[in-house]
Thioredoxin family protein
Amino acid sequence: MAGMLNLTPTPIFRPVSTRRATSDRVFMVKSSSVNTSGTPLSSISPPPNFKAPQPKPFSVRPDRVLDILGASLALLFRLTTSVLVSGYSVTVVPAKEIPADQYALGFAGFKLKESSKLGPRPEKPIEIYEFESCPFCRKVREIVSVLDLDVLYYPCPRNGPNFRPKVSQMGGKQQFPYMVDPNTGVSMYESDDIIKYLVGKYGDGNVPLLLSLGLLTTLTEGFAMIGRLGKGSSYTPSKLPPKPLEIWAYEASPFCKVVREVLVELELPHILHSCARGSPKRQMIYERVGHFQVPYLEDPNTGVEMFESADIVDYLKATYAL
């Protein structure tokens, strides 16, 4: 099955960039038997004989080494931005001080005791329309990781038939990123304005240094993506799922990046559960599956839950690409 997104457009107020959505704004993904070109689609199901792979921490599938190396270049240009959650702190303690049922990175008889200071938590996920290879969008994704927010992403790759047109309907122009906060009714363009809004509402009000350097920030964001040569920017015909996928990830991870690229190219709406270092959501994954590793994908449309970035990429293409 495919789907269509039905949204009641929010009113546009000028000249300010912040808008209030009406209280009767409707969001839903409606199932359909055809895709956007009118081609009939079969029910969404995992590939035949599919079996989720066993997680292999800190390993790279041989055919994906160059992908991960290219995605890792971002760490050179953006340093620790989006690696650590706001207010991150760490102490090294003997391993016995950390209960066995608590997530902690261990080495040589010691473990890292990590903590963070998070602001108010939004009741509903923030909604962001964007695409992977845009430096302005990356800026916003970085603050999402720093603030440890859950975000419902609507991918808007070039020639994407579903969500790019919706942004024009809602905001009046096709510009990215575009944010909608269903908790407050606020919607806006402009990456710097979105960052200031998010840190003011869900953080301590302070924009991290590496996200406050104006043109230098934008340039380094662009340099951070040169290793992937525009991946995550162009639409690949796909089935639109009835329900958003869910992925546990964070912006700085090269393994997460290669999965996000495919989610964007296939225009698959997804809830991203941020879990940079210091995030309490690392413990949540640990409790659920007895192991922490990202990316971790949950597909409510097929019931598939899986680790391993290379295998997730293969699964997404096999399940949703036309």
In short: Residues 237 and 322 are 6 Å apart (CA to CA). The chain has a mean pLDDT of 88.
